[in-house]
Automatic annotation (TrEMBL):
The keyword Amino-acid biosynthesis does not apply. Residues 38-98, 107-165 form the CBS domain. Coiled coil: none annotated. Keywords: CBS domain. It comes from the Bacteria. This is CBS domain-containing protein. SUPFAM superfamilies: CBS-domain pair. Gene3D superfamilies: CBS-domain. PROSITE patterns: CBS. The keyword Ligase does not apply. Residues 1-26 are annotated as: Disordered.
């Protein structure tokens, strides 16, 4: 043991002790909310009406480089969601006859939504249980955004990179 090492003594002050984990760091992921993700990524949403064709929906999905569209009525109320998976299923059922179909005939009408105050863990559990990757966010009965599994994963990765940088700076000084 080096001569400069002094083992901790009972009289040492508690405030000098450090902990690699704390309740705050362990619970941080549990308390991240949908609002934080939306504030970071933005509240932009893309929608289509139920009477438009799948051809138009596919064009929007391609042009916007997204995986799902909100389906809203003429007043802007959410009536469904149309995902790439919905379209692929229809393609398998009706090859060569899919694109002229109406969005309203193919969309998922029982839409699972969340609120901005919900935690990311709650949302991920719901998405995993329902086997879907896109979830509309509702606030006060109105659409507030769309959250995806990719958004959640990306947000967490950025956060982990930041934590790693902080640890590196702590070690290096």
């Amino acid at each position: 043991m080096p001569a400069s090492y002094q083992p901790p003594m009972r009289k040492d002050e508690e405030k000098n002790r450090t902990h690699s984990q704390s309740a705050e760091t362990n619970l941080k992921t549990e308390t991240l909310t949908v609002r934080q993700v939306l504030d970071h990524k933005g509240h932009e949403m893309f929608s289509i009406t139920p009477d438009e064709t799948l051809r138009r929906a596919v064009e929007i999905l391609r042009d916007k480089r997204i995986g799902a569209l909100l389906v809203c009525d003429t007043e802007g109320a959410l009536v469904g969601i149309l995902s790439e998976r919905d379209i692929v299923r229809k393609l398998a059922d009706m090859p060569g006859q899919t694109l002229p179909q109406k969005v309203g005939d193919v969309m998922t009408s029982k839409v699972q939504t969340c609120e901005p105050s919900e935690t990311l863990m709650q949302v991920l559990k719901t998405m995993n249980a329902g086997r879907f990757r896109h979830m509309p966010v509702m606030e006060g009965g109105a659409l507030a955004g769309m959250i995806t599994i990719g958004d959640v994963v990306n947000y967490r990765l950025v956060e982990l990179e930041h934590e790693a940088l902080q640890l590196k700076q702590l070690i290096v000084g």
